[in-house]
What does this fold into?
Amino acid sequence: MIGLDTNVLLRLFDRTDPAQTRATEQLIVEQAQDGCLLNPVVLSEFAWTLDRTYKVGRGVIADHIDRILEAPEFIVPFADEAASAAARFRKGPADFADYFFAAINHTLGCTTTMTFDRDAAKDDRFTLLPL
It folds into this structure.
């Protein structure tokens, strides 16, 4: 198993650099049996970059995440939480990372995730920390 950095994962969706795209595709094919690990931070950076840099819509980002989660080449720790986060991100105002971290926290036994982020606090897994 190998880990992938965000900039490598992005090449599967941003095909503007043909050499990097080919190298990424070849790597994933070669590693298919052992798998490519996508750390939760990488998946979060991936969503953030698609949103902020590429200006991709929430539904498209969630669709990309869903496809990643379904692909047998990728190993995603907390995959169920990532799927839940993608669904919440598709409909809610907060960033994917917020929903993902809250889902992980919930799985790890947290009753809530405290935040100052008013968008995140609209989700039932968050509590707005009063000032």
User: Anything to note?
Assistant: The first strand starts at residue 2 and ends at 3. Residues 18-31 form the longest helix (14 residues). The two ends are 45 Å apart (CA to CA). The chain has a mean pLDDT of 97.
